[in-house]
Amino acid sequence: MRTIPLVTLEKLQAASSDEALIAFATIEHEAIDQPIRLALDLADYLRDGALYRAAPFRLDLVNDDDRPPRARFAFPAVNRQALTRLAGVSDPARVTVEILAASAFDLSSEPREQKPGATALYAARHLFLTDVTVDAASCAGTLRGWDYRQELWPNMLATQARCPGLWP
Asked: Which of 5, 6, 8, 151 has its CA 20 to 30 A from that of 133?
């Protein structure tokens, strides 16, 4: 269950509000040296010592039906070399998407710094970037969640070598 601070919740539910939500995306893979960190805003943000670059990325809502989670994700080519490496790998990159309230940041500083104790209102931490396409200006792909239907069942077999106490 998500816990949203009461002050933020009241502002979001009001008929008009000055509260804004900011989306942050982190893309990680062993083929790239540093994670790609993006902030859906016109300013850079500093969160937990990491710099999130201003980038107008596009993220569709993750589906919520009987299929495994999936959404389209597109973002500008902020690091062309890293994206070229990312497009050439066979295993998917890990993506984390977090939503924070603008009031969780000191908006007078540059880059904007997160206030102590501020937490994400929403986080999707176990997404994978697949079907990556890269061109001169942008990168696009499909975000997928783990497909639990693909797990082997039973996950572990009780063999005599693994569980010798079960056999006389």
From this structure: 151
